[in-house]
Amino acid sequence: MQMRARGLVRREQGRRGDIARHCYARRVTCPRETEPAADPASLPAVDLAELAATARTVALEAGELVMRRRREGVAVAATKSSAVDVVTAADRESEALIRDRLAELRPGDGFYGEETDPAASSTGIVWVVDPIDGTVNYLYGFPNYAISIAAVVGEPSSEPAAYATLAAVVHAPALGETYTATAGGGATRNDEPIRASSVTELGQSLVATGFSYDAADRRRQASAWAQIAGEFRDLRRMGAAALDLCAVACGRLDAYFESGTWPWDHAGGALIARESGAVVSGRGVGHGADREGRTLTVATAPGIADSFRRLIAPGFAPADEGPRAPTQ
């Protein structure tokens, strides 16, 4: 499947606003880089299927690595935003493997990962990577963790309108599941098409969220949740944002929202959810900012999208600020 990146960005405008202004009038690089913008007229044809295949190949290799390290035993290598926000040696090894393999397979592409510094793009493509989404699950032996790899054009910053995702893979090695999507090409799980649920009543919906690693933030989030918890069939907290988005995509969840997510958390899963028919809503590609100033990622089955947004608005009202402390 051959498509020009500039044509895709124009198509995305109808769903997400003026992405082209951000992708090309500024810079097609990673944050903090200063390379000049790529001229959209000079961009080569982009094979979205090839991008997805590359992401899948590398994600499967990373999955083998993290599973092997899990069998050998996992220990905390460092902490980040708080004492409970952990990094394992496997996170670092996985990101190093992904970064090196993408550089081999697609030299010149940029890189934006959770654990290492960004690299600028000379091709207009940037890879946004979470080497292990759900690190705490991984540490404890819960199988709900994944490798997320997304190819984007634009700047994968905290402002989602600054980039557009072209292709994505979320691979959950312990679950034996691999989710794949290309922009405009639909979404699959293990090569079978997936669709969001057909639920139309909030009271019949299964909803998931995530919580901050910061204790004070977590208390505020729990308080906001307590105000709406009785409006759904039930609630879940599964600990991996990318997989929560994929769960909405395949109908295992009817809705998911979380404040404090970062591009590596949601770039891949958001495309997969949207291509399954889910509504990824809010500012830009489904991300506003909650009233504490963090990004808010929302994905729902289409039949409850409007009512869900209205319900969460009082506790998670949009603001103009970006993210502060990351969540899992």
Features:
globular, D-Maltodextrin-Binding Protein, domain 2, 24% strand, disordered N terminus, 2 domains, 35% helix, disordered C terminus, alpha+beta, Fructose-1,6-Bisphosphatase, Chain A, domain 1, 7-stranded mixed β-sheet, 6-stranded mixed β-sheet, 328 residues
Notes on the protein architecture:
It is an enzyme of class 3 (hydrolase). Its cofactor is Mg(2+). It holds the Pfam family Inositol_P. With 328 residues, the protein is of the alpha+beta class. It folds into 2 domains: 2-193, 2-Layer Sandwich (Fructose-1,6-Bisphosphatase, Chain A, domain 1); 202-312, 3-Layer(aba) Sandwich (D-Maltodextrin-Binding Protein, domain 2). Helices cover 35% and strands 24% of the residues. It is built from 10 helices and 17 strands. The strands form 4 sheets. It has a 7-stranded mixed β-sheet with strand order 5-6-7-8-9-10-11. Strands 12, 13, 14, 15, 16 and 17 form a 6-stranded mixed β-sheet that branches. A hairpin with a 6-residue loop joins β3 and β4 (86-88). It is globular, with a radius of gyration of 18 Å. Residues 1-6, 9-44, 282-293 and 317-328 have low confidence and may be disordered.
